Amino acid sequence: MDPETCQLVLEIILGRKLPKVNVHAEHNVSINSDFRSARFDIYANDEIQVNYNVESQIKDEHNLPKRSRFYQSELDAYSLKPSADFNELKPSYVIFICTFDPFGDGLYRYSFRQRCDENGRELGDEAYRIFLSTKGENEKDVPIELVHFLRYMEHSTDEYVEETKDEAITKLHDRVTNLKKWRTLEAQYMTVEEWARGREKDAANEGRAEGIQAHVSMLCEFLKELGEIPESLLEKVSAEKVFATLSRWVMLAAKVSSIEEFIEKMY
User: Fold this and answer.
1) pTM (2 decimals)?
2) pLDDT tens digits along 87-101
3) Mean pLDDT of 183-187
4) CA 221 to CA 201: how far, in whole Å?
């Protein structure tokens, strides 16, 4: 669901930098109600309209070749408008990340595209299917960053990330850790909101100074979870006297993943 994380994963898999990526999780594609539809784990496209479908597969159902064929056709049909020329079709990638070896050859990555049987010439339809395996054994034949990523899929621990000393995996792990924290805080969000609103009502009876101080204290607790609070920010928070503003900041601090993000969104 997170565009930056999705883009980082795609860059590791494809081995190149990508333009800004838009992402949709659990994306349904239904061309006609009379026929089977596809539900993509991740559907993404970038600023030059290249389409990506990323699937995570933990059980071998022995249908990946034809399943990937169906997903690719749905991906293309969904991306072309009725009046558009076929040459307007952009490249598309269907990617399966498997915790098993889908073809049994011990490879970390199996890449497929259309070729002519007679002379080996590429068809040039820009349709690509990639199958990744966490059980690969050909470490010397693929980028080490990809190997680290596939191992991380099964061992997403602080210890493994420290062992790899891989900048991309460290960044990915930081994003995952923050997203998990955000999801945990999300469950507490209504409680925080109710608390903040309750304090506003209590302040009318107990005195404005006490109500404001309660808001500031709660806000500082959330900010400390994000890192060291800059002196300038602490001064700004402490000087705020508007209940509504402090309540909004409390709820914002419960959702952001860094002090920098909080500062960027506080006004």
Assistant:
1) 0.65
2) 988 899 999 999 999
3) 57
4) 21
